[in-house]
Design brief:
Shape: flat
Structural class: alpha/beta
Low-confidence stretches: 141-179
CATH class: Alpha Beta
Helix content: 25-40%
Length: 179
């Protein structure tokens, strides 16, 4: 909490009036404490880590709960790794790393289960139950090959695009079970 007390006013001084926080539940607790004390200097839209989904459901949280100063956001799901560490899912191996196509942080079946669970519990934001960070092209391809109900739940959620980013190749070799 000391770090938030020190740095949130700096964000406000730089002209930011609100943030979307993607950190864990410890950050949520700190924001709630600052809010209760009247010490929260800017608006916070706090996502729910996928690892805390059951806790959020048990607590009765839903996306949009709260007020203009502290509100509950969508469930945050990581589908693959990052480009810099050579862990985002790629269609071809990384240069000089035969066999390294990256990693699936959340396999497709688990992703679909998390999205369905979040949607069923009222965790929505702009009609979407999750905020998904997808770097590699394979995750977008897997999403496109998902079941019809899952596609309907994911529509517009930003989990993939119809065009690969410049870092990705054009032919996906990942299977739906691993991507």
């Amino acid at each position: 909490m000391a770090q938030l007390r020190a740095h949130l006013p700096r964000l406000l001084a730089a002209g930011l009036t609100g943030i979307h926080d993607l950190d864990g539940q410890d950050a949520r607790a700190a924001y709630e404490t600052l809010y209760a004390r009247g010490e929260l200097p800017l608006r916070v839209h706090k996502t729910i880590p996928a690892t805390a989904l059951d806790e959020a459901i048990d607590a009765g949280w839903a996306t949009g709960d709260g007020d203009r100063w502290l509100s509950t956001g969508p469930v945050k799901i990581f589908t693959d790794g990052a480009l810099g560490s050579h862990t985002c899912l790629m269609t071809e191996p990384y240069d000089g790393e035969p066999g390294n196509h990256g990693i699936a942080v959340t396999p497709a079946e688990e992703f679909e289960r998390l999205v369905a669970t979040a949607a069923g519990a009222g965790m929505r934001w702009r009609r979407t139950p999750s905020a998904t960070r997808r770097t590699g092209w394979c995750c977008g391809r897997t999403r496109a090959g998902a079941s019809r109900p899952a596609r309907a739940r994911w529509r517009g959620c930003g989990t993939g695009s119809s065009t690969p980013s410049t870092c990705c190749r054009t032919t996906c070799r990942c299977s739906p079970a691993t991507a």
